[in-house]
Amino acid sequence: MSTTECDVLVVGAGIVGLGHALAAADAGLSVTIIDRDRRPVGASIRNFGHVCATAQTGTLRDLALGSRQRWLDVASRSGIGVRTGAGLAVARHIDELAVLDELAQTRGSVRPLTALDVRDEIGGAADGVVGGARLLDDLRIDPRTAVPTLAAWLAERDRVEIRWNTAYHGVDETQTPDVVVRTSRGAVRAGRVYVCVGHDLDTVAPSVTDEARVARCALSMMLTADPGIRIDPAVLTGTSLLRYEAFAQTAAATALGERLRARRPELMAADTNIMFTQRPDGGLLIGDSHHVEPTVDPFLDEDVADLIRREVSSVLGVDLTVVQRWQGVYASRPDGPYLTAELAPGVRACSVTTGVGMTVGLELGARHVADDLP
Q: Residue 203 CB: number of other CB atoms within 10 A?
């Protein structure tokens, strides 16, 4: 097999890999992307399509806001549909409303809403709503089409190529600054390589993931039939307020956590983040639960799935019919939201190790390219 050449080789055509490829292409570099599958089928299409910038803190907040701007920019160039001001937190208990009100005092992108406002946002049939908040920094995209559209658009650009059904087999030592990557379809010589394979980094560089204590987080998610109502934002609920740092760090979150542990132990036992978004055809993406192990079982627990369906149905005040179920998987570790490591000279691995790849992936890739390339 012959050896081809490029300035940058990206392994993995999920959002993190495409973020690196986009930044390199925009810098005028030649880019080759390889992916072992024939189209995107991983975490980047199995999610809610929610760019959750409002609820991040610290470094993740900076990355999320940078990524938000990059989503808007690439959407204008590629035709990807994107909604702005696209987060809604629904409060159905006074302690949930207290969390939102406390955060709104220090973060202008959290806009308090009345109970009537919230019911109007989610179809008008919701019972028990006491208020809520708009999350103005958030974006919404359709997860099943956004990354495939971005990949196809990149492939049409000059000096960018995507090789599907092409697996990464490692690198060969050379006497030059370039890197020679072995793939299932021949060698590629590149000036810089980014390995962005998500949770599969544990098969590519197990010593790196072992040292960083990277495991796999499995999610239970579903698609419902169109419930007959229109919902523009990504909708978060009480359990979401314990999961995202900006909410969870408020003083009011303590009382919320105590109540949910005492009164809703089944939600806490499944480590749920009850939320949902609506696809263009009207179906609702609903979820999710979280289970972390080094190797996760592929089997979905119907009790957990039914719990999620019933909770979303309760929020909306409508019956829901599930039409699809699937398991999402992403990399997870206790010591940081993302992992970067130099696998060899000129070869950097990058995995987001919490569930915010769509939120931070574009900016993370852009920063790596800016740091690494002249």
A: 9
pLDDT confidence of residue 373: 80
SS3 of 228-262: the string is CCCCCCEEECCCHHHHCHHHHCCCCHHHHHHHHHH
The token pair at 302 is 């119907």
Burial class, 2, CB count within 10 angstroms (exposed 0-12 / middle 13-18 / buried 19+): exposed
Averaged over 193-208, what is the pLDDT? 98
CB 229: neighbour CB atoms within 10 A? 16
Q: What angle do CA 175, 178, 183 make, to 5 degrees?
A: 105
The radius of gyration of the chain's CA atoms, rounded to the nearest angstrom, is 21
Distance linking the first and last C-alpha atoms of the chain = 31
**Distance (Å) of CA 176 to CA 12, 169, 190:** 25, 20, 11
Q: Contact at 8 Å (CB) between 137 and 54?
A: yes
Strands 131-135 and 87-91 come out as antiparallel
Give all domains of the chain, ordered by start, each with its CATH number: 3-46+145-211+335-372 (3.50.50.60), 87-137+215-332 (3.30.9.10)
How do residues 344-367 score in pLDDT, each as one tens digit? 999 999 999 999 999 999 999 999
In single-letter form, the type of residue at position 182 comes to R
| Cα 266 from Cα 304, distance rounded (Å) | 9
- pLDDT tops 90 at residue 281: yes
